[in-house]
Amino acid sequence: MYDKAYIKILFNQIYSALIKIKERTENIPYDKIVLIVGNRKRIVDYAVQNQFAGIILTGIKDLSELSTDFSNYNGWVFVSELSTAETLSLAMLSVPAKSIMNTNLPTIKASDDIDIAKFELSKSDLKGLPVIDDMGNLVGLVTRMNFINNVRKKLILVDHNEYMQAVDGAESAEILEIIDHHRLGAIKTKSPIYIYTKPVGSTCTLVYELYKANKVEIDKTIAGLLLAGIMSDTVVLKSPTTTNDDKQASLELSKILGIDYLDFGSEIFSVADNIKVSNPEEVITNDIKIYNEYGFKVGISQIEVVSFSVFYEYKDILKTALLNIKKSNGLDWAMLMVTDIIKGDSLLLTTTFEQAERIIPYKKVEDNLYLLSGVLSRKKQLLPEILRILEELSQSGKRR
User: Fold this and answer.
1) Most confident of 8-17, 231-240, 361-370
2) Of the residues 148, 166, 184, which one is the last residue of a structural domain?
3) Are 339 and 303 in contact (CB under 8 A)?
4) Domains of the chain: total
5) pTM, two decimal places
6) Around Cβ 280, how many Cβ atoms within 10 Å?
7) Are residues 287 and 383 in the same domain?
8) Helix (H, G, I), strand (E, B) or coil at 14
9) Which of 390, 385, 393, 383 is nearest to 183 (CA)?
10) Strand runs (DSSP E) across 144-207, as ranges?
């Protein structure tokens, strides 16, 4: 049993707490108050009598412990088994973010250089700033720790060797290697790097050769991916870019898979007709190369089909999409090369560029559409002609 002295001290503490509650709430409307308290009857009764907005009772293991009459209480009661301190901590975490968030914040664009981001953050007293894209959507967060631990990302460029075709931010990364089969651009590195480049039909051939050179076993999944890449790049070994290395790699990879690579290639193209099922702009940007040459910026995309009839069905939609891509990328000239892998011919859909169209060597089918007989390769057959046209325009001083 408790002695009288203890009961008196306990009563005085409760009475003192009740007086403090009355003092602290006298200038606050009762319907705006939420009380967090243990099972202290006089304090809880006071909250009920004055119709506090809510009461959170803490340390309650069993409802039978409560003796307060809530029958005439209009607010809500929440019972917590946790202590008052723990309950209060969780209650603070339950505050809606929108009630405490600041919507007037400086932001950093995803396209901004690191120096700009560092400068914007240095002007702020915040620990970090939101990163947004051109549409205003949140894509990430930059904190001060990002600049303290300013370790350059390491990249290996595969199937390209120019910053324009690389991932965003590649300019500030450390380039370790380049594995490619395209013409070399003007990329600069701070230290010597390993470059493996050969005039083959597919970079997948080079990757396969590196597997062999380093004596790394190739499982069926990797073999299938590499063979699919070779078949796609070389149009089932029909493209003029195809070399004996591509053919040998295809043969060896097909043995790992236990399949015929020609049948495999034909099957890929039979299901790769994505004009019907894809967003038209995605069809074009899925395999687009952008070039800055002779003062002009041009983009050339390529898709393969098994019949031009599919292209003609969606020609107008693709033409509109091509124009949108030209505008969004700031291009002088945008082109879509549609290759019929069965006939071995291509159609070239272009945006309007009158000076270039006057000297383009291909047969005009209609406005902004040309027939490229026997042309399968963008890199080896179409690109040299486009570069020749741009050079001629540059020398004559003609622009858009």
Assistant:
1) 361-370
2) 148
3) yes
4) 5
5) 0.49
6) 19
7) yes
8) helix
9) 383
10) 154-158, 174-180, 194-197
Residue 179 sits in the same domain as residue 122 = no
pLDDT band at 8 (very low <50, low <70, confident <90, very high): very low
At residue 299 the predicted structure's pLDDT band, cuts being 50, 70 and 90, is: very high
Burial of residue 291 (number of CB atoms within 10 Å: 0-12, 13-18, 19+): buried
Task: Name residue 397's amino acid.
Answer: G
Cβ–Cβ under 8 Å, residues 40 and 20: no
Domain that holds residue 125: 102-148
Q: What is the C-alpha R_g of the chain?
A: 35
Q: Do 264 and 296 sit in the same domain of this protein?
A: no
Nearest alpha-carbon partner for 273 in 310, 226, 300, 239: 310
Q: Give one DSSP letter per residue of 46-86, joined into a string.
A: HHHHTT-SEEEE-S-S-GGG-----TT--SEEEE-SS-HHH
C-alpha span between 356 and 87 (Å, rounded): 73
Tell me how far apart the alpha carbons of residues 290 and 282 are, in angstroms, rounded to a whole number. Answer: 15
Tens-digit pLDDT profile for residues 204-246: 999 999 999 999 999 999 999 999 999 988 988 988 889 999 9
Instruction: Give φ, ψ of 248 to 5 degrees.
Output: -65, -40
Number of residues assigned to the chain: 400
